[in-house]
Structures are given as C-alpha cells and as structure tokens.
Amino acid sequence: MAQVNTVLGPIHPKQLRITSLHEHILFSTPGWEYSPEARQHFDAPRVFERIYNDLLDFKAAGGRTVVDVSGIGIGRDIEFYVCLSRYTGVHIVACTGFWAQRKILPYFAERDIDYHTGLFVKELTQGMGTTTVRAGVMKVGNSGDRFTALEELTYRAAARASKRTGAPIVTHGTQFARKQAEILLDEGADPTRVIISHLDAAYALDLERDKELGRKGFYLGYDHIGTEQSWSKAPYAMPDEKRVELVVAMIRSGFLKQIVLANDTNGWSIGIVHRETQEHTYAHLLRNFVPKLLKAGVTEEQIHTMLVETPERLLPF
Ligand SMILES: [Zn+2]
C-alpha cells in the first residue's frame, strides 16, 4: 500500500491532514558552510527555536504537514528536520533533487542522466545523503532566462525516477512552465504525479497556460502565497488578493482538484538574507489566505479538497 515518506518514517496518507506542499525549512546557496559570516549567523539553537515556533504556530492554525522542497546542497539538513518534526509533532516531508543550475553543486553537475536517475531513486527508496531517511518528493528547477542542458537532464532523470518509483515531482522556473511539461511528458512522466509550481509569479501570470496544463492533467501550484510588495522585493511578489482571483478562476474552470496552495516560505535563509522573515511564516496560508478565499465565495469543502485531499492523492507512492 502506498505511503508517504516523512522524515520520521512512512505514514498513511490519511495522517497528512492539512498540508502545505511547497515550503522550505532551511534554504541557502551551496558553499555557505565555507563562509565565516554565514556560519556565525547560523546560530543553531536560535534557528531551531525560530522554526520550532513557526511550525507550532502552523499546527495551532490547523496545519499538520509541511513539505520541504529545498533538495540537495541548498540547506537540506535531515537530522535537523528529524528533531523539528519529533518535537513539534508536525510531519515534515523532505525532498531529493535540485534547484536551478546555479545552485547545483559541481560534483552533481558533472554527472550523466543515469547517475541522476539512480541518485533520485536511491534517495526516495533508501535514504537521503548518508541517512536512512527516505525522500517524499523530487524537486527539479530551471533558470529564469533559459533552460540549460543540465536542467533538462535533471527533469528527464526525475521523470525516469518517477516512472520507476511513482514519486511526485515539483518544478521551479515558471517562465518555462510549458517547456517543463513538454520535457516531462516527452520522457513519459505521468502528469498526475507532477506539480508545475509558481504559477502565481507576478511576472509570469497566464491563466490560459494554467488551463492548458490543467487539461493535460498536471497539478497547478499557486504557491507564493504571502509574498507581497509591502515587504518583499522578490520579482514574483504581488498582493494575495490577485492570487485569490487566480484560484477562484481556476476553480470556476473546473480545476479544483489540481490546485496546490503553499507559501514557499523559508524557515531560515542561511547566509542569504540576514533578516528574519517574520511577516511570512508557514501559518500565513491558513490564518490569512484561507479567510480571503472564503470571503471570495470558495467553500469549506473546496478548501478541504485543496489542502487535505490533494496532498492525500499526490504524496503517496
Ligand atoms: Zn520554493
């Protein structure tokens, strides 16, 4: 029977409950550990306490599971996640895979497609890194201005690993959302195992594209919730009200069961932003965004479908 790999071991999909499918516990740039100032800034007890409190707050708001899509080299720290999950009681699903090319470590960038397919399968079925904790999803990404050969290789490897294991894939790099879909389908991936992420990026909104991807069977990520210009300089920032409009439009078009909602927040950005993103925590989706959806006419049942039933369908393999 299909189960969900959490950092504390496999669980039944019904145990997931309210789930945020695209978050980051730790997030960084490979090499940070060689920087004295980044190391000094990474005060482990303080970072632990901050994320511990954020996860408890998410739980108090009704949340039960967080999916961390940081992947290899950009902060993923399995032992740290194990402790956080054990002491907060929040399920954490961690991932294998990579962000876009500039955050893929040279050791991995030099390997071929068979290596990457094997690496993903190994991390999904035996354990991530040197641990025996199995990954629950795969992450692949592409750059904003181009789709590099290495990035395409990781997409193809993820498709192959998904065919072998049934594991879900989460993408990054909305500018090339159609190309992501094309490559994955070309490699024979099942679109109902794929989330095309970040469709709510301010610079790449395209409702027709979203419907086209939806008709092909892909899951559709509106997962930058809470990143607004009032505090963020990110190019994808925009008011949550606009995200509500997108979600409502997609529900009206019949794609309720394919909508994925998340904050894409970082519990801690190691050595990148020396600022605590207190405005944007895991609980934001439940505490601030869900009420906006309800006000716009989305029903409790529809919210349950997006936050509980969709993760139950997507995560087990
Ligand atoms: Zn992300």
Q: What topology emerges from the helices and strands here?
A:
Elements: E1 4-6, E2 9-11, E3 19-27, H1 36-41, H2 44-60, E4 65-68, H3 78-88, E5 91-93, E6 95-97, H4 106-109, H5 113-125, E7 137-141, H6 149-165, E8 169-172, H7 177-186, E9 194-196, H8 207-216, E10 219-222, H9 240-252, E11 259-261, E12 266-269, H10 284-295, H11 300-314
Parallel strand pairs: 3-4, 3-12, 4-5, 6-7, 7-8, 8-9, 9-10, 10-11
Antiparallel strand pairs: 1-2
Helix pairs in contact: 2-3, 5-6, 6-7
Bound molecules: zinc ion (ZN).
Residues 22, 24, 69, 264 line the site of zinc ion.
Computed Rg: 18 Å
Number of beta strands: 12
Average pLDDT number: 95
Biggest sheet layout:
6 strands, parallel
What do we call the CATH topology? TIM Barrel
How many discrete structural domains?
Answer: 1
What is the element string, with H for helices and E for strands?
Answer: EEEHHEHEEHHEHEHEHEHEEHH
Order of strands in the sheet with most strands? 6-7-8-9-10-11
Shape: globular
Ligand catalogue:
zinc ion
Number of contiguous helices = 11
Report the end-to-end length measured between terminal Cα atoms. 8 Å
Instruction: Please report which band the strand proportion falls in: under 5%, 5-15%, 15-25%, 25-35%, 35-45% or over 45%.
Output: 15-25%
- The CATH H-level homologous superfamily: Metal-dependent hydrolases
CATH C-level class is Alpha Beta
Helix content: 40-55%
Classification by helices and strands: alpha/beta
Low-confidence stretches: none
What is the CATH architecture descriptor?
Answer: Alpha-Beta Barrel
